[in-house]
Design goal:
Layout (H helix, E strand, L loop, with lengths): L5 E2 L6 H14 L2 E5 L4 E4 L1 H6 L10 H4 L4 H10 L3 E4 L11 E11 L2 E11 L2 H5 L2 E3 L2 E3 L2 H14 L5 E4 L6 H10 L8 E5 L5 H9 L15 H5 L4 E5 L6 H13 L1 E2 L8 E2 L3 E6 L3 H6 L5 H7 L2 E4 L10 H14 L7 E2 L1 H9 L5 H15 L4 E2 L7 H4 L27 H4 L16 H10 L4 H8 L3 H13 L4
The structure holds adenosine-5'-triphosphate.
Pfam family, one: AAA_lid_14
GO molecular function: ATP binding; sequence-specific DNA binding
GO biological process, one term: regulation of DNA-templated transcription
């Protein structure tokens, strides 16, 4: 038993071992975590699934792909999530698990979590699929594609929900292309991009003289999409008065152009998308419940890229192959450290951001291997506190924001400062020279001393070279 079961802390003992064995008989492979999210016990079944070195004291982010904060958020949410075991070699495929945590408490005191694991069948999980310009090997995405195929054949409205860059517009196009309306037009309109009055006339059209500048009749998107599909992107941003009109359109299949009187029949299928939880918008009074029910006959949720970490590297390699095919530089592989950074990065802009990051790396890098230095600056600068041990006076962050920081000996040499995501820092050439002198010319070390990425250091030196100040 000792070999297959490890435990830690006062919670342990024979009783706990038996209890965990019994729990596994009911609930399957189980891990116990303490209140700080460190492993306190691994059940025998879980041990059979996890690498041998997983044991007491290890933190969740040392076992699974993802930043510590995100994994803790998953524990706290008590929702089911997909996690992948941290890969140990460049070639090792990420092994996905379905994970659900329940908190353990005693007399109101938090003891930690019980984490149930279920391994996803290898044959199901590794299958890759291309679907209308999208690629995935994630089972949830593949299930989503099947739902899209079914929904496409009907007239039902579809509401797509997902973060920016997850592929909502692609899915909307697929719904149209697979539908009996494929021969008709597909039109898309972004409800967040236009002022309310303009949005109404863009959607329903207007008659000549309806407002200043309306010099001729305009058909509007509904009529232009006649016999086809209209994609309402960012539908949650639609202003309330327009929501009422949209509801009427969905009920009567007619529109009234701005400045017009007569209803005009329209035969259009509506697909909408939002990055917001529409239900919450309804609860908060910002969106009409009746319209939500009309729009979401088939709701489809697109998972964020970080929730399907097995897709990150293969997609990155496909994007690189695409850029290689355009000629010029050839990137043949991604270095292990860059792979790790990419797996751990939260990708707030999802697949769009991944594609852009690969384009950036393709442009910036110089070798056949893409290294972490080729990745965009946010990989280094947003993820961690920036330390400026040299001459803090030249940094744009106001001195009042300098905070004490408990950490490494290097940081203790000078006051470190936090730089908020998106905030820019400026490092003078003088500082770079001093850092390079301190680092005996080693750029990576100099960049680390300055708290900037190697790409930023390289770029700053290049700019200085170009304007002759180097
Ligand atoms: N699974 C995927 N495989 C390959 N490319 C993808 C995938 N998902 C999205 N993309 C690409 O990512 C980019 C963004 O996709 P899309 O515009 O459909 O996202 P979106 O969710 O509609 O974004 P937004 O809400 O910001 O409009 C596009 O270039 C698209 O081709």
């Amino acid at each position: 038993m000792k070999r297959v079961f490890r435990e830690r802390g006062e919670e342990g003992g024979q009783a706990l071992q038996h209890a965990l064995g019994a729990l596994e008989a009911l609930a399957g492979p189980t891990l116990l975590l303490d209140e700080r999210g460190r492993v306190s016990a691994v059940g025998p079944e879980a041990r059979g699934l996890l690498p041998r070195e997983v044991g007491a004291g290890q933190r969740l982010h040392e076992i699974f792909v993802g930043a510590a904060d995100e994994l803790h958020a998953l524990l706290r949410s008590q929702r089911e999530g997909m996690l992948s075991l941290r890969s140990r070699g460049e070639r090792e495929a990420l092994r996905p698990f379905r994970v659900r945590a329940t908190p353990r408490t005693a007399e109101g005191r938090a003891l930690g979590w019980t984490v149930h694991l279920s391994s996803c069948a290898a044959t199901e999980d590794r299958r890759e699929e291309r679907f209308h310009g999208m690629w995935t090997q994630d089972p949830r995405m593949r299930r989503l594609f099947r739902i899209v195929e079914k929904a496409a054949k009907t007239q039902a409205t579809v509401l797509l929900r997902g973060e920016s860059g997850t592929g909502k517009e692609r899915v909307a196009c697929a719904l149209h292309a697979l539908s009996p309306r494929a021969h008709g037009p597909f039109r898309a309109i972004n409800c967040a991009a236009l002022a309310p009055t303009l949005l109404e006339s863009e959607l329903f059209g207007h008659v000549r003289g309806a407002f200043t500048g309306a010099v001729r009749d305009s058909p509007g998107h509904f009529r232009l999409a006649q016999g086809g599909t209209l994609f309402l992107d960012e539908v949650a941003e639609m202003p309330p008065e327009l929501q009422a009109k949209m509801l009427r359109v969905l009920e009567t299949h007619t529109i009234i152009p701005v400045g017009g009187r007569e209803p005009v029949s329209v035969d259009v299928r509506i697909i909408s998308a939002t990055h917001r939880a529409l239900r919450r918008e309804v609860e908060q009074g910002r969106f009409r419940a009746d319209l939500m029910y009309r729009l979401r006959v088939v709701p489809i949720f697109l998972p964020a890229l970080r929730e399907r970490p097995g897709d990150i590297l293969p997609l990155a390699e496909q994007f690189l192959a695409e850029f290689n095919a355009q000629g010029g530089r050839q990137v043949k592989r991604i270095a292990p450290r860059a792979r790790r950074q990419m797996e751990e990065y939260p990708w707030p802009g999802n697949v769009r951001e991944l594609r852009n990051a690969m384009e950036y790396a393709h442009v910036m890098g110089e070798r056949e291997t893409l290294t972490e230095a080729d990745l965009p600056p946010e990989f280094n600068e947003q993820a961690r506190p920036v330390r400026l041990p040299l001459s803090p006076a030249s940094v744009t962050t106001p001195a009042s924001e300098v905070e004490a920081h408990s950490c490494s000996s290097r940081a203790s040499r000078a006051p470190p400062r936090e730089v908020a995501p998106g905030e820019t820092i400026e490092v003078s050439l003088d500082e770079i020279r001093r850092a390079l002198a301190l680092a005996r010319g080693r750029r990576a070390h100099a960049a680390e001393l300055l708290g900037i990425s190697r790409v930023t250091l390289w770029r700053r030196l290049k700019e200085a070279e170009e304007d002759g100040t180097a």
